[in-house]
C-alpha cells in the first residue's frame, strides 16, 4: 500500500495538483479584485464603454492570469537557470530601444515585436530581481563583507538604470535602483558599504538631469510651484489636484466625474487613473483601493518571510518592492508629492507591458510561496553568522 502511495505521489499529475493546491488563492483573489477596479475605472474613462480601454485590458489580464499560474508552478532551480538569460535579453532589448525604439512624448520606450508594442524597461525590473537573487543566494554573510563580491551585482543594477535614463524614463530608472538597493540590503550588505554606494548618487542625479528632455526638466522646475505654468508643465498636476478635491468624501458618482468625463484630466486612462477613480468614488473609494494595494504588498512580504530558502526570499522581497515602488511613485505623483513621471498604477492603469510584467512578477511571488519549503539555496547558520 505504501509503495502504491509513493508511486501515486510521483505521478506528474499528482505533483501538479499538489502545487495548485499550495497556491495562495486568497492572494489571487486580491489580484483579481484590483484588476476589477481597473476594468471599472477604464470603462468610465471611455465614457461608459468597454472600448478602447476596458475590454483590451481584460483580455490582457486573462492572458496574464494564465502566465501567472504557469510561472507559479516553476521550481526554484528552473528560475535560477533562466535568471541570467532573461537578464541579458532584457539588456539587449534596452539597447535596441535606444537605436530603433518607438518614440512617444519625447521618449523612446517601446519596441515593435511581431506587431506588438513592448516596453523593455518593464521586463528589465523582473529580470533584475531574478539575476540579483541568483547571485546573492550563493553568497553567505561573510562574503558580503568583501567589496569584490559586490562589484558584479552593482554593475548589474547600474547598467539597466543608465540605459533606462537614456530613453529617458526617470520614474522607471528610480524603481530599478530602489529594487537593487533593497536586495543589496536584504542580502546582508554592511552599513559602510551602503554609504560607499551612495557616494556617486549626486553624480548620477546630475547625469540623469542633463539627459532629460525639456518637458521633463520643466516638470521638475514647476514641481513646487505648478501655478507658474498653469497651461504648460503645471497643467497635469493642477487638474489632478482639482479632480482629487472635487471627489470629496463619497465622490461625484460613477461615470459622473466632471474633470474626467469632460476630458480636463490628462492621461486619465494611464498615469492619472487614480485621480479619476478618487473623483468618482471620493476619499472613501480611494482609501479602499489603497488598502487593497497594501494587502497585496503585505502579502508579498509575508511570502518572503515564510520562505525557507534564500533565493525564494530574495525573489519575493524584490517583487514586493517593485510593486510597492510602482504604487508609491504613481500615487505620490498624482497627489503632487513628487514631479510627474510616466509610472502607471499596477493592474489599474491601461497598458499591456506593465500588465504582463506585474502578472509575471506575481507568478514569481506565488512560486516562492508554492516552493517555500524547498531546500534549494536554504538559509543556514553560516549565512547568518
From TrEMBL:
Enzyme class comes to: transferase
Specify the protein's topology with respect to the membrane: Multi-pass membrane protein
GO CC annotations, alphabetized? cell division site; plasma membrane
Kindly indicate whether the keyword RNA-binding belongs to this entry.
Answer: no
UniProt superkingdom: Bacteria
Sorted keywords for this record are: Cell inner membrane, Cell membrane, Cell shape, Cell wall biogenesis/degradation, Glycosyltransferase, Membrane, Peptidoglycan synthesis, Transferase, Transmembrane, Transmembrane helix
Q: Does the keyword Cell wall biogenesis/degradation apply?
A: yes
Q: Which residues form a coiled coil?
A: none
Q: Which Pfam families match?
A: FTSW_RODA_SPOVE
Membrane-spanning residues = 20-42, 54-74, 86-103, 123-141, 148-165, 171-187, 194-212, 281-302, 314-338, 350-370
Job description of the protein? Peptidoglycan polymerase that is essential for cell wall elongation.
Q: What is this protein called?
A: Peptidoglycan glycosyltransferase MrdB
Q: What is the lineage of its organism?
A: Bacteria, Pseudomonadati, Pseudomonadota, Alphaproteobacteria, Acetobacterales
